[in-house]
Amino acid sequence: MGIISNDEGKMPANLTPEYFEVERKLKTAKTPQEKISIYEELLSVIPKHKGTEKLQALFKTKIAKLKDEMQRKPSTARHGPTFHIEKSGAGQVVVIGPPNAGKSALIQALTGAELEVADYPFTTRIPAPFMMAFENIQVQLIDTPPITVEYMETWLPEIIKASDAVLLVADLVNSDSAGALEGIFLKLKERKVELVSKAADIPPEKFPFLKRTLLVANKNDSSHAAENLEEFKILFGGQFAVASVSALTGDGIENFRKEIFSLLSIVRVYSKVPGKKAEYEAPFTLKKGSKVLDMARAVHKDFALKLNYARVWSKGGSIDGRRVTRDHVLEDEDVVELHL
What we know:
Elements: H1 17-23, H2 32-45, H3 53-71, E1 92-96, H4 103-111, E2 128-134, E3 137-143, H5 156-162, E4 165-171, H6 177-190, E5 194-196, E6 210-218, H7 225-236, E7 241-244, H8 253-264, E8 266-271, E9 284-287, H9 292-299, H10 301-306, E10 309-313, E11 320-324, E12 334-339
Parallel strand pairs: 1-3, 1-4, 4-6, 5-6, 6-7, 8-12
Antiparallel strand pairs: 2-3, 8-9, 10-11, 10-12
Helix pairs in contact: 1-2, 2-3
């Protein structure tokens, strides 16, 4: 078949019987999707050493070309898969990035879930939701396949449009990470999706197309990570906030949870029944800038209709049970007592 020879015409060392068993499937593969699955399986079983580097690169190139071929098929062809992830928790954040940036490893570090994590690209093939705990709320993180300048899953922009925010994961090891990110920006713009600062003011009608984004510089435990991080800040710091973490060692992970909460631009509000203690374990999550009336509506639509006034206690103590109107703007961790 020719796909197992190196430049000298010699077979790479240490190819296993399992490898050859998988390779034989290529003879009967007919569709691009079948071939992609086989090449991905070959990448998973091939020994990882210098003698197989060119072979691995060849498989990755073939996968990219096959996916590009599938994407370019006329609209009369059978439609590809579509996905919808039901939102859960206080917000939904889609995790995207180039191959091998460590998206799945990062989600695993944040959630404690067991994900398939490997050192070859396209380990993640379909979107998958996982829940991250932050203090007394849960945030939904969506793992996704990688994006390259050559290929992006056709359904991925729709997943991003439906989300509340985006984590863009970059690799502090790869010297071409900056170029890979630029490729992602171009690929998303082709589908009218633009990644913007977490401080951006997004009109409601533009919300599906402009996504607040946090740039995550992963693998800060690697050599030269500090220099590469400075380069990221110079190139992208004016556009995005940049968080430095290591999914492998856990460095920066706990503070990163706070960054994700901040990215969602929400506040937690606790309800209080007159004469009783506040319910701190089950906060209502509202958009920043929400008012007492929005809180009442979140409790029950009848509360919004019948609301007379409210009493509010702030976390910092600046407001201590003060009577406020329905237009009072709420802050994070305010306690609200509704009076009908």
